[in-house]
Amino acid sequence: MAGIALAGVSVAVLVQAAAAQTAAPAQAARAARDGASVRLTIPKGSLESGLVAFTEQAGVKLVYPTELTATLETEGLDGTFSPLDALTRLLEGTGLTHRPAGASTITLINPRYVQFGPEPVASVRLDELSVEGEGRGTAIVAAGLPPRSGTVGQPPVPYAGGQVGTGARIGMLGNRSVLATPFSVTGYTEKLIRDQEARSVADVVLNNPSVRSDAPPFSERDSYFIRGFSVTNLDTAFDGLFYIANPRRHFVEGIERVEVLLGPTALLSGGTGRVGGTINLIPKRAYDEPLARLTTTYISDAQIWTHADLGRRFGQFKEWGVRFNGAYRNGATPLDKNEIEVGVAALGLDYRGERFRAALDLTHSRQNITAPTSLFNAAAPNVLIPRNPANRRNTASAFEYNDSVYDMAAGRVEYDLLPETTVYVAGGISRYREDSLSSYYLITSPTGQATNTLAIAPTELQGMTGEIGLRSNFQTGFLGHRLTVSAVEVNNKNFSRGYFPPSLPSFETNIFDPVSLPFGSIATFGLPRASQQPLFSELTARSVAVADTLSLGGDDRFLLTLGGRYQEIGLKSYVTRPVPTQGNLASSYAESAFSPAIALVVRPFENLSFYGNYIEALTEGPTAPALAANAGEIFAPVVSRQKEIGTKYDFGTVAVTAALFEIEQPNAFTDPLTRIFSVAGLQRNRGAEFNVFGEPVPGVRLLGGVTFIDPRLTNGNIAPGVPSTAFNLYGEVDLPPWLAPGLTLTGRAMYTSGVYYDTGNTQTVPDWTRFDAGLRYAFEGVNGKPVVLRATVQNLFDERYWASAARGFLAVGAPRTFILSAAVDF
Question: What's the start-to-end Cα distance of the chain, in Å?
Answer without folding.
Answer: 35
